[in-house]
Amino acid sequence: MIDLVSVTQALLVAEHLSFSRAAQVLGVRQSAVSRRVRALEDKLGVSLFERDSTGVRLTEAGRRFLERTRPALSEIDHAMKAAASAGRGAEGVIRIGILASVSGGYLRNLLGSYREHHPAIAMEIVEGSTSEHLARITERHLDVAFVAGTPLAAHCDSVVLWEARVFAALPEHHVLADGDAIHWESLKDEDFIVSRAAPGPEIHDYIVRRTTAFGRSPSIERHGVGGETLMHLVALGFGISIASEAATATRYPEVVFRPLATAEDMLPYSAVWLPGNDNPALRRFLSLARSLASGRPAPDAPKWVS
User: Fold this and answer.
1) Which of helix, strand or coil describes residue 199?
2) What would the 3-class secondary structure string for 65-125 be?
């Protein structure tokens, strides 16, 4: 029998390429992690890692083994959560991937309304990039994901549910902060900052795409921070950034949001899912999503039968 704890620790070593860093994350001794991984290698009859004075590297056998075990462990984790939900009397689980902020707007209303109408269904919310979400949908790690634009995802269904304007995030002393709306021509010489985490990569690509028309290669710095810290960096003058309309519902000291002026700066947002997913919680969710998008009243909550 394979020890799942050993596999989990091996995955952590592979993520950090360091036994000491994995041990720090786990809060255990490095020697304990090394013993478990070595025992796993002995059980498998192959070396998962190359160890030398320069650090740790995955072997080809290690790469293949961990690529296959990672989704398997994810499924086990999901099964445990589903069992826990059943133990709490929940009527199901829906796993939802989000990209846009839920500070305000359609997505916030949808999540709140679904929870109100289906309180017995557990909701798991996962943040991530568009590419991450599409992969998770295909691997059945998510039931539905919300992404910007109209992605062409193989074997997936999608529907545009709402549109939102794009905003520039500026320090309050910026020369453009007093205007009502901003044109990209006014931003072409600005220094931009984005997060490395989602939705930073999407924002980076959006800035590049919108400034191409002016023959400029934009100055964009990436920071390993979350959205809140990024806005504080805007206030400190590190650069300006771009935000979704929903994100403007949160107020940050010394930061102002100004809408971008052109029609191209209205972004559609889509829901994506696998058509063969027979999760009843997903069908109810999509029904509610379409109702809210069309302006129809939300469906009545079901009468739960014991």
Assistant:
1) coil
2) HHHHHHHHHHHHHHHHHHHHHHHCCCCEEEEEEECCCCCCCHHHHHHHHHHHHCCCEEEEE
Q: What pairing do the DSSP bridges indicate for beta strands 219-223 and 241-244?
A: unpaired
Residue 55 contacts by C-beta under 8 Å, 6 or more apart in sequence? 17, 18
Q: Is the domain of 58 the same as that of 117?
A: no
- Do 77 and 7 contact (CB within 8 A), yes or no? no
Q: Per-residue pLDDT tens for 292-306?
A: 998 865 554 333 322
Give the tokens for residue 87. 């133990």
Those residues with Cβ within 8 angstroms of residue 306's Cβ, 6 or more apart along the chain or in another chain:
none
Domain that holds residue 128: 90-298
Same domain, 63 and 147: no
pTM, 2 dp: 0.65
φ, ψ of residue 259 to 5 degrees: the values are -70, 145
Domain match, 165 and 285 both: yes
- Helices and strands, counts by H and E, the chain: 9, 11
What is the C-alpha to C-alpha distance for residues 63 and 41, in angstroms, rounded to an integer?
Answer: 13
Same-domain check for residues 61 and 95 = no
Across the chain, what does the average pLDDT equal?
87
Structure tokens that stand for 230 in this block: 């990024």
Residue 96 shares a structural domain with residue 21: no
CATH at residue 68: 1.10.10.10
